[in-house]
Amino acid sequence: MALNSALIRSIRSYFVKTNPACSIIASRNFASGSDGSPKEGWLSKLLHVKRVEPATESHSRALANKQVVYEMQVHNIKPDRMGDYIKLSEHHLRRVHDNPNMPCKLFGSWSTAFGPQDQAVHIWAYDGYKSVKEMSELLWKDEEYLDYKKQRGSMLINRSNQLLLPFNFWPEPEIHSPGNLYELRSYYLRPGTLIEWGNNWARGIRMRIGEGTTVTGLFTQVGDLYHVHHIWAYKDLESRRQIRESAWQKPGWDDLVAYTVPLIRKMDSKIMIPIPCSPLQ
């Protein structure tokens, strides 16, 4: 659906009437080209419907080139048991992470500060699906784990997990000094759009490298499908605001937003605090 001049003028007029501040936005995003024809801005691109291109290979082959598999565990905890849960879980998390005979490592572990309350998120890294199976078998024979699981059960409302792969274009986690907040941004994509999402973010992530904020980008293989997670690290909420606003000044960022928003069915964000045993602090 291309935007003609009359439609652009109508939209701009509506923006300005309903909110005078929008006149600046409208002027920027519906500006005219040198020949007087409308020049496409980010909102014009957003309203343009793109055809979803057919996939020619599996997502795991096209978007991931690493052997590593991640498991994201989400635990919703009874409000009056959060402290007990963290104290109990820290021992288990450290014991598994530090055991050289366990075929997985703890990537990060957090409790939520803003977003869903009384929630913990743990991410484990495995050396392929074979290690996922091996770890599951080891835990079911581990008496200490079974006792931990029983105690933990009395503290939980519910729990869920996903198996995920890392995007091949996402850089390795940058080194972060302790004292960070972590943002988990989750996107539920329209089926069939994961390749297009990856193609756009392969360009977009280059605009964010060097900020000290990139942690990881993951997409599901088991669990809610077409579910993407981006994790970012910030010193505090104010630095998050500043960094996110500065991204809009970078050439091409508006294109990234315009071309990826139509791919999203739903999205959410949560701010998380590392628990003491988390490798990411």
Description:
This protein has helices spanning 5-18, 22-29, 42-46, 59-63, 82-98, 129-139, 143-153, 194-204, 237-247, 253-260, and strands at residues 69-77, 104-114, 119-126, 156-166, 181-189, 214-222, 227-234, 264-274. It has 281 residues and is of the alpha+beta class. Strands 1-3-2-8-5-7-6-4 form an eight-stranded antiparallel beta barrel. Strand 6 (214-222) and strand 7 form a beta hairpin. The protein is globular, with a radius of gyration of 22 Å. The protein starts with a helix and ends in a 7-residue tail after the last strand.
Short account of what is shown:
With 281 residues, the protein is α+β, with helices and mostly antiparallel strands.
Shape: globular
- Amount of helix: 25-40%
The rounded distance between the terminal residues' Cα atoms is 46 Å
Report the radius of gyration as a whole number of Å: 22 Å
Instruction: Specify the biggest β-sheet.
Output: 8 strands, antiparallel, barrel
What series of H and E elements makes up the topology? Answer: HHHHEHEEHHEEHEEHHE
Strand content: 25-35%
Number of strands: 8
The number of helical runs is 10
Task: Please give the order of strands in the largest beta sheet.
Answer: 1-3-2-8-5-7-6-4
Would you tell me the structural class of the helices and strands? Answer: alpha+beta
Q: Please, what is the average pLDDT?
A: 84
> Which spans of ≥5 residues are poorly predicted at pLDDT below 50?
11-40, 42-49
